Description:
By secondary structure, this protein is mostly helical. The protein is built from six helices and two strands, in the order ββαααααα.
Amino acid sequence: MLIKYEFITGEIVEIDVPEDIGDVIIETRHNDYNVNRKETRRHESLSDLMDKSPILIDPAADIEADVIANTENNALHTALAKLQPQQKELVYKLYFQNMKIADVARSEHVTEGAIRNRVRKILAKLKKSLT
C-alpha cells in the first residue's frame, strides 16, 4: 500500500508500507481530522470576528471607567438591600420619584425635620456600607 507523506517543506513522498500498517495510518489520519474538526467546528477566531463585524469595537469606550462604575453600582445596590423597608421606601420617594422632603413629611404626618433626620441616618448607613 502506498501512503503519501507531505513534509513541512512541501515535499511529498510516497512510501510503500504493509497493508495492516497502512490501514492504521489511514485510520489515525481520519481520527485526527475528526478531532480537529470537532474542536474547531464551533469556534471562530477573534480576527475573523473583527473582520466580519467591526461594530464590536467601540474606540470611544472607556472599559476601565465602565468596570469601576459597575462595581460601584453593585456596591450601592448591596448597601441599599441592607436598608429596612421603610428606609428603602424613603430613598425611593426622594431619589427616584424626586419628591420633596416637605411632601414626604406631609404624606407621613411628620415634620420635615423628622424626614431630614431619617435621611441623614440612611445616608450614614449607606456610607458605612460602602467603605
